[in-house]
Structure prediction request, 474 residues.
Amino acid sequence: MPNLQTVRRMLEAHGQGHLLGHYESLTPPEQAALVSQIATIDFDQLDEWIAQYVLKAPAAAIPPDIAPPKIEPRKPADEAARARHAKAIARGRELLAQGKVAAFVVAGGQGTRLGYEGPKGCFEVTPGKHKPLFQVFAEQILAASRSAGRPVPWYIMTSPANDVPTRAFFRRNGYFGLKEADVVFLTQGTLPAIGLDGKVLLAGPGELALSPDGHGGSLRALRASGALADMARRGVELISYFQVDNPLVRCLDPLFLGLHDLAGAEMSAKALPKRDPMEKLGNFCLVSGKVTVIEYSDLPEALARATGPDGRLRFSAGSIAIHVLGRSFVERLTADGRCQLPLHRAEKKVPFVDASGTLVKPETPNAVKLEMFVFDAMPLAKACVILETDRSEEFSPVKNADGADSPATCLHDQVRRAARWLAKAGVAVPRDADKKVAAAIEISPLFADCPDQLAKAVDPKLTITAGQNLYLGE
Ligand code: UTP
Prediction:
């Protein structure tokens, strides 16, 4: 353990001496824990961040040479595109069958907007069986493993705060039918919350206020945890990245994987056509020839509303945080062990212990939290594919407790998608007077994970009555 005097002098030199303000009142194990927490922080680096991101909010600089990127349409428009997609799907399946793909979910977020106690992946989302988000993904991965004829490993990123309950949840649920050895947990790093005056906050007398370093922290967590090395051992080349909050995501999409691979891309993304110019999604842009995501809050309104000669929005593609990353790309970015992507600042209300030892619960934002975003790795990739997708098929996140992007909207979107797939397979779906689906329909990914599979698996003579709770599972 570092010498206390040395630590105290170092902290004082950085204007953070208050972190040892309650040291004398702590028990020896608490003292040791605090000192080792402090030792994990690079205070020289932190000084730079405080000057750059905390004491002032960096102005968004919009580069002059910004242009729309090339977008691969979901539905091929001509014969050449149809052939390209067919080849990509075949390639994606081949990669899965060769064991070259891993699934990767980032599940370290705090889920404050949803306000659910516990890891968000444990939140029950499906309409009939109330399956938790983790189970929805597990069943997709199991289904893909069966089609591939071999297990697809699944890497799950947690945070220090939710790692233990997440692992316990999987253990309790028998890994939802997956082999324990093929479910690999890794924990992301943290960054300190910093008061608006530049002082690091204490969450308790002997504890720094730390929060997860953002989904962009996943890249260095993959390296630091040994997950990249584990992938290399298993022969994994492609990482299929998704967020924990969207049960409509296709965790392992052969088309997306194949397009990425055939284009020799290092990092790819799925995109949605924005609903309206000001929709709160990051914008895919080309900056100095590099694919870059510009946050909705940073894109000037004139650019967000600009249209091309065809009358369509110039910047129409919104980011939904679904990616394929090459393992070797992540290895390259993390070669120095750091992978310092740019930081994004957010002002938040962070409870803290003041100089008198009192716990203060602020009513207004009192601190800056710093986070890295994974899409900031895109400009570092040699090539990227941006594949447009269909919102109703692939995107309905659970972010808020109510209103937009809530459990209620997500439930409806799941039912609507299931009804659409059934109608496509020739099954009559009951509707109410407002044309809304009049049954709670749930399709397990183990029954079918795409419309074509459903058409093969379901009896078109199936009758569904209004008000029925229909579950199509194994
Ligand atoms: P969000 O941006 O929705 O953040 O995360 P959040 O923390 O889950 O929710 P709020 O903002 O507190 O309400 C998008 C995805 O990125 C993951 C989340 O778990 C989610 O899958 N994430 C976010 C991490 O894994 N780590 C982080 O530090 C932040």
Remarks:
- The chain has 14 helices and 21 strands.
